[in-house]
Amino acid sequence: MKVGLIGFQAAGKTTLFQAVAAGAGKGSIAAVRVPDPRFDRIVAQVRPKKATPATVTVTDDLDDAQGGTGRLFTQRFLDEARKLDLLLHVVRAFESDTAPYHAEVDPQRDISTVEDELVLTDLQIVENRLERLKKSPNARTPGTPDYLDRVFFERIRGELESGRPIRALELSDEEAAIARNYQFLSAKPMVVAVNVGEKEAGSPGAKVRAIIDRLGELGTQAFAVSAEVEMEISQLDAEAQREFLADYGLEEPASARLVRAVYDALGLITFFTAGENETRAWALRRGSTALKAADTIHSDIARGFIRAEVVSYADWEAAGSWEAAVAQGRMRLEGKEYVVQDGDLLHIRNKS
Ligand SMILES: Nc1nc2c(ncn2[C@@H]2O[C@H](COP(=O)(O)OP(=O)(O)O)[C@@H](O)[C@H]2O)c(=O)[nH]1
Ligand SMILES: [Mg+2]
After folding, report:
1. DSSP assignment string, 173-186
2. How far is the CA of 31 from the centre of ligand 2 (A)?
3. Which of 3, 86, 177, 344 has its CA 20 to 30 A from that of 188?
4. Which residues surround ligand 2, an ion (CB under 5 A)?
């Protein structure tokens, strides 16, 4: 899963990136660990040669949004943003004399400006496509791809014109496939990180809370963070980190809050493979089948799929080990269509 930081220059993207990448980053790309106490317990019991947590890939290599006159986004930004699974909008809500901003600090305005531009970019694509579809006879022939495109595009044109992002619409599977095909930017899941000043690091003020609540009502995950404070904390050793987080009244570091918001926005769950060589946590879209989980591990394992051996996390924990769960009759044999549940331990029997 690839998450890209977007937002205005001097909003704090690179600072937040440094906070969440601490130790896991290379240049402007980082594999941010998904914190999961269940995984830690499995690793402590199995003691594998290698333990690989689930990660979310975060990149900070997109062009800054440009304040002032001209286009908000560069062509390079648009091209790169289309490849992402999720846009993480870092919004400036801190005041600073040393780090000037292109305008008065107004997070709500910036959120609207960026959202409007994503919507407008998609609207232009939809209008161009509808214009070309006028020349296609198939666009009037039910059942053809051109017909499906036309009906769908006419519907979303109206929504986009009234400022609604595609992500906020209920789409059928067919429509969602078209939206993916066109890589619409306003269809991409979005998370907003409101970058607050040091005083608000532990508990954001009423203004910021109102912004987060409002986004929540619109179905957008949002969280407050003080990127600078978090960046400084991330450079400390584990013990000092815990102390400083506690001093600020923070339960967990920015990376954990970011990952949680991303998991929610993408509808992800975690499953585990508990091997002696490697024990690993994997991110998977909620509702995915055992076959999809096998494919996530390796396409060969999906191709040779015979059965999935499944132990739920609750059963594993109650039994204390995979072997004990099997002995207690808690291991199930499931087929390709089994819908994987959050926390499942899987062993895929396969022909490869
Ligand atoms: N006071 C304060 N300054 C910050 C915070 N986050 C970023 N900055 C400063 O704002 C400036 C721009 O930050 P940067 O992360 O480079 O922004 P970007 O352009 O979005 O990548 C830098 O001088 C940072 O030190 C914050 O939470 N509080
Ligand atoms: Mg930057």
Report:
1. HHHHHHHHHTT-GG
2. 18
3. 344
4. 13-14
